[in-house]
Amino acid sequence: MNFLFILLAIFMFGFLIFIHEFGHYTAARFFHVTINEFAIGMGPKLFSRVSDKTGIRYSLRALPIGGYVAMVGEDEESDDPGALCAKPVWQRIIITAAGAAMNLLIGFLVMTILVSFSTFGGTVVADFFEGATSPSYGLQVEDRIVKIDDTRVHTATDLVYTIMHDARGPVDVTVVRDGETIVLPDVQFPNFSEAGHVYGDRDFYVYAVEKTPLSIAHQAFWQSANTVQMIWDSLYDLVFGEYTVQDLSGPVGVTQAITEAAEQGSYNFGFMFVFISVNLGIFNLLPLPALDGGRLLFQFIELIFRRPVNRSIEGYIHFVGIMLLMLLMVFVTFQDISRLIQS
Question: Whole-model pTM?
Fold first, then answer.
């Protein structure tokens, strides 16, 4: 891997972590929460400075695999009037969710930029590949595909993805033809295999869409939504056995994927940035101990029942969650290194 691309991947990690933690930090400052430290990275300090105005320590740490905003009263009781635990629960919910929200927002903004500088397609069939199978099931040129089974499609990107993910066997394809909505039953697309998994394969071309402010906004929104769908599908498939933990990648594997995307050009690198940013946002919202989503779960319980869960119990649960996440990270990092050695 090119060393400069590796540095670029590390910079991307650091930037996305900064964006995430800056979301927490900004929301906490807005609600006047006392902050001890704003750190990017984990482990030993590389740089540290205490603000004379606010008393907040700003730190850059050695390992670009995380970061944190250390707020008074986050995991303990405190008499400080600016302690997080002293703030109304609705403010704490906003502060907790702000990190993931920033990752999702920056992902959408970068997707809008990518769409603005690229050619994009719709869902109207323009022609078929040689050896295509779908025409024999009734699909025609000029058909506008609107659904694959029960999944609506809005752009060429989510059309390709939906066929890949859902059309491994026969699927019903809903099209608009000459103004009439028609359902084509049991359409069979070609299949291909990769890493032991079978996927459906699009066998037709689509028309490009004219670039206007409205079409750019439409494409950016639905391509961002498709990125969210890809991540949710991956999580669902992992939980229900389509994928296993052996298919997971950690920081080393993701760095390799980023460097490969960067070598393929700025668009692929930009899309990888969007995917990781959205992935970071969604993963942090999962209701798991130690993640933002786990903290949100306890905060919503407090909101519903009007009293907090015992903080020592909550702290113990988050501690166990951190240990399990660290073990998982060690495992997937070992897998990543093994794959690199074998490749």
Answer: 0.79
